[in-house]
Amino acid sequence: MSRRTLSSALPLICAAVTAAALATPASAAPASALDASASPSTLAATEQSLRDRLGGAYAHSWLDTATGKFVVGVTDAARASEVRASGAQAKVVAHSAAALDAVQSTLDQRARSAPDSVTGWYVDAPANQVVVSVLGNDAAGLAWARSANHGAVRIDHATEAPRPLWSIIGGQAIYLGGGRCSVGFNARSSSGARYVITAGHCTKGASSVSGTGGSIGSVAASSFPTNDYGLIRVTSGTALSTALVDRYSSGSDVTVAGSTVTTIGGTVCRSGSTTGWRCGSVQAYNQTVNYGGGNVVYGLTRTSACAEPGDSGGSFVSAPSSGRVQAQGMTSGGSGNCSSGGTTFFQPVREALSAYGLTLYTG
Prior knowledge:
21% of the residues lie in helices and 40% in strands. It is an alpha+beta fold.
C-alpha cells in the first residue's frame, strides 16, 4: 500500500473506532425505587412492562401496606433482577398470576353451585393465594371451598354476609302505605341516627317506608296540617344516606352544600319522582295555603316551578353552581301541572330541621 493510500485510510479507521466507542453504552443507572409516592400512571406502566417481559413468571403487583414499596411477584428467582432494574421490589412466590387467575376462573364457573355461606372469593396478590370466604364454619361452604383442590386456595372465616347497597337520593321515589311520594333530604341527629325528611302529608298515617332499592325504615314523626313535614327513620343497613339530589334527565346529581335561603325572584329547582327536575322562581315567603277539608298549612314558600302528584316531599333546592346546591324545602302542593304550568309551594327545610334537632347531610 502506498503512503498516500495508508494515510487516507487512517481517518476512516479512527472514525470507525470513535463511532464504536460512542455506541458502547455506559453502565445503566439503576431505576429510582418505586413506592406509593409514584403516580398511578407510572406504576401502571411499570406493571404492564414487567407483565409483558416476565410472561409466565409474572405473579401480580401491589404496594406493600407496611413500607409503601411497589412489589412485583415473580415465580423464577433468576428473573428477580429484571424486576429490581425497573425500580420495583421483587418477591419470589410459588404461583404465577396466570395460575391464580385460572383458579379464580374455575370458581367463577362453579359460582351457581356455591352455598349461600360462601360469601365470595378473590386473588390475594401479596399472599399469593386465592381466598374463599365462608361464613363461620359452615360445613357446606367449607366443602365447596375445599373442592377447588388447589394448593393456592386459602379459606377465610367471615362473620357477616355481604349485602347490596343503595343510595337514598333526594327527589327519588318513596312508597308509604300504598302511596308514592319523593325523598326530600337526608339528615341525622346528634346521636348519629339517620332520617329522611319529606312532606308531612305523605308520612301521616303511614308506617313502613321503602325506596328505589328496598326497605328504608318506618315513619318517626309527622306534622300536617299546620306544617307539612315528616320524618322517616332509616334503619336499613343497605340504604346509604347521601347529600345528593337527582336531576333526572337534566344532568348529573347535585350535592347539597347547605341551606341558605334563596331570595324572592331567585331561581329554585325541584326534584320529584313524577316529573323529575323542574325549575322556577321564588314568588313569596310565608304563604298560608288552604288545601281544603280543614287542612291549612302556614309558612310555605310560593314558587313558579311546576309539580304533579307523586312529587310531594321531593327536594326544592337553589339553582346549581358547580354541581352544588342549597337545600330550600320539601314540595308540599300546588295547582296546575307540568304541561300547562303551575304554582307549587314548599315547606322550608330549616323549620323541619329545627323542630326535630337534625342536621342535613352535606357534601
